[in-house]
MerR family transcriptional regulator (Streptomyces fagopyri), 135 residues
Amino acid sequence: MARRSGFSEPTLRYYEKVGLLGVVGRDESSGHRRYEPATADRVVALACLRSAGMTVAGMRRYVDLLPLGNAAAAEQRDLFAGQAERLAEDIERLKSRLAYLRGKTRMWDARLRGDAVAEHRAIEAVTLILEQFEP
């Protein structure tokens, strides 16, 4: 399951301990965990949520709302919409950092070529990016 989900074994054990996975059966002969198909699907869903930046608390809320089905649809929608907004903000910050790195690459490339005009343009572009930089 660790390989399939990308989670480490300690993370899977932690998620089991805090109730994100429910009861996970064990193989009687080896003692290894045996994930039922529904639990395996949940692990994969949690892996998607985690890779989208959702916290354990957010995942806990998601799992807690699952048994409520349609009665919790608005809460589930809000949970996912909020996470999507946070992820969109992260993406914008990453785009800014990528633009900075590309600008610095152009600057150094121009310097290597001895192109002072292109180097100056790249420095100006990087300066504009830095003025808007959010850590």
